[in-house]
Amino acid sequence: EIVLTQSPATLSLSPGERATLSCRASQSVRNFLAWYQQKPGQAPSLLIYDASNRATGIPATFSGSGSGTDFTLTISSLEPEDFAVYYCQQRSDWPYTFGQGTKLEIK
Amino acid sequence: VQLVESGGGLVQPGGSLRLSCAASGFTFRSYWMSWVRQAPGKGLEWVAHIKQDGREKYHADSVKGRFTISRDNAKNSLYLQMDSLRAEDTAVYYCARAITGYFFDWGQGTLVTVSS
To answer: Can you tell me the distance from the alpha carbon of B53 to that of B39, in angstroms, rounded to the nearest whole number?
Structure first.
């Protein structure tokens, strides 16, 4: 099973700042990685797929990069609604796995 | 796209439950579908995946032999039969539409609590 490790566990930033979230895979997942956002009491929603493609309706402030084992989700300028938990997920191999999440909180 | 789960509730350890997901707003029979769960205060765990025609199914090791995913394309519905339930199966269960292995759309979830 491919293990995804996200860092940091918690990130404290202020609105307007830049956020950089990391996801590291235990083995190469090529570019088959997605990012999801989950707000309290809500279902997750897809942000990025295939490492760098934004899902429909996702603003350009969100960008994804990386390949192989190291991936990054960048939020260029934080809006109040961006404070949430973010998960990465690989679909390179069964079983599909998720990272443990990064909580982005307001500083 | 709308996905509406139902069937969750409180069940005793060893018991059974069947979850349903009603799909609308897209051509259900054309997509892989999945169940993903989230234990209280925890992260996401993929549970099961089923091909468009229902002939290919995959289950996580943690539920293999106890849970079964199925679908009825005539009813635009996805199901998860859960048997031999354990306390560790307590979670919100989400139905999701999958495209190339990613979960593009999610339902609001249904809570399953396994407790005596």
So the answer is: 30
| Residue A89 to residue B108, Cβ atoms within 8 A | no
B37: left (phi over 0), alpha (psi -120 to 50) or beta: beta
- Structure confidence by residue, pLDDT tens digits, B4-39: 999 999 999 999 999 999 999 999 999 999 999 999
**Residues 6 or more apart from B38 whose CB is under 8 A from it?**
B44, B45, B91, B92, B94, B109
The residue behind tokens 């402030």 is A61
**Could you tell me which chain B residue has the CA closest to the CA of A50?**
B102
Chain B residues in contact with chain A using a Cβ-Cβ cutoff of 8 Å: 36, 43-46, 49, 58, 60-61, 94, 100-109
Separation CA A64–CA A47 (nearest Å): 9
Burial class from Cβ neighbours inside 10 Å (0-12, 13-18, 19+) for residue B99 reads middle
* Chain segment B44-78, per-residue pLDDT in tens: 999 999 999 999 999 999 999 999 999 999 999 99
B87 vs B42: CA distance, rounded Å: 14
| Sign of the alpha-carbon torsion through B1, B7, B8, B13 | negative
How many Å lie between the alpha carbon of B46 and the closest alpha carbon of chain A? 6
Q: Which of A46, A91, A100 sits opposite B43 (nearest CB)?
A: A100
